[in-house]
Amino acid sequence: MQKFTTDDITPESIFQQRRKIIKALGVGAGLGVTGSLLPNISFAETQKLQALKFKADNNKNLVLTPEKKVIGYNNFYEFGVEKGSPAQYAKNFKTDPWKLEIGGEVENPFTLSHAELFSTFPLEERIYRFRCVEAWAMVVPWIGFELARLIEKAKPTSKAKYVVFHTLHDPEQMPGQKNLFFGGGIDYPYVEALRLDEALNPLTLMSVGLYGKSLPPQNGAPIRLVVPWKYGFKSIKSIVKITFSATRPRTTWEKLAPDEYGFYANVNPHVDHPRWSQASERVIGSGGLLSVKRQPTLMFNGYEKEVAHLYKGLDLKANF
Ligand code: MTE
């Protein structure tokens, strides 16, 4: 477990100030804040990139989690179950070349190369709360595109009811896929899914970057899902395949422990995990190990206005 200190919080105002300076210099806002630009993007394209902060009311007073926590405190069991393991063991993970295949119940199956992940759909920045089922929380400035754009291009058939995501299966590169103990006993490849209407919600993001840079391997390079109103385990990393399906698949955590991790995985302070409360959360980066701040967990992680309508009439206790 790492130690956190209060002095390494980056207030959003400082981040925004740096962003303004970068904008004034003529570099696309949202890029080049502290390091490398997104790969394979020309200067003209970087200029087109808009740092369109999502207009939801609830991101107004969010304090960004320090970047070094976002990229150093990770869950990516393919690279080990300790929070520091992914940064250590994914260092040499090869994410270019990459191929993302889109198929199944669609009229227009297609494949995206590494470069096309960054150039096919309009990229924007979204600052989202991120809540893990383990009762810790972060605020992350993601870069990505709406999954809805990719779905529009794929043209799902009338049979498509679910969107299914698959992580790369490559035991040679991912030690957790070779060693049951190191990889947390998961039946790889990691698979996640959303109902089609959840996937189409404007909040649902395919992320290729964070903090103005392309994703580091430990955060799911080159492309991962981000579903901010659901527990983090739905936000599957290093995706190689997206398939549209008429039936609901059994997803990774549901398969491993169905009493603990449901298909829906909506953040809900009123439905506890069988082994711990979900009423509050540790704010990563907010203090030392013993003084870390706790805050109340919000229904749908604060995105109730945007997503509650998706679950009208659904018993959220039974469908956790
Ligand atoms: N995706 C894959 N392929 N493997 C994983 O182990 N862990 C999930 C999710 N996506 C995981 C994954 C969990 S439990 C969480 S909380 C988030 O990734 C963590 O994302 P982060 O490390 O970027 O914070």
3D structure, described in words:
There is one protein chain. With 320 residues, the chain is an alpha+beta fold. Helices cover 18% and strands 20% of the residues. It contains nine helices and twelve strands. The chain has helices spanning 12-24, 43-48, 67-70, 85-89, 114-119, 147-154, 196-200, 252-256, 304-307, and strands at residues 99-104, 110-113, 124-131, 136-146, 162-167, 191-195, 205-210, 213-214, 224-226, 239-245, 280-283, 294-296. Strands 3, 4, 7, 8, 9, 11 and 12 form a seven-stranded mixed beta sheet that branches. A hairpin with a 2-residue loop joins strand 7 and strand 8 (213-214). The chain starts with 11 loop residues before the first helix and ends in a 13-residue tail after the last helix. The relative contact order is 0.17. Mean pLDDT is 86; it is low at 1-37 and 42-53. Residues 74-78, 132, 167, 190, 219, 232-233, 235-238 line the site of ligand MTE.
Q: Biggest β-sheet: count, sense, barrel?
A: 7 strands, mixed
Structural class: alpha+beta
How many extended strands? 12
Strand content: 15-25%
Radius of gyration, in Å, reads 19 Å
Order of helices and strands: HHHHEEHEEHEEHEEEEHEEH
Count of separate DSSP helical elements: 9
Query: What percent of residues adopt helix (DSSP H or I)?
Result: 10-25%
Approximate shape: globular
Distance between the termini: 28 Å
| Distinct bound molecules | ligand MTE
Entry keywords:
disordered N terminus, alpha+beta, 320 residues, five-stranded mixed beta sheet, binds ligand MTE, 18% helix, seven-stranded mixed beta sheet, 12 strands
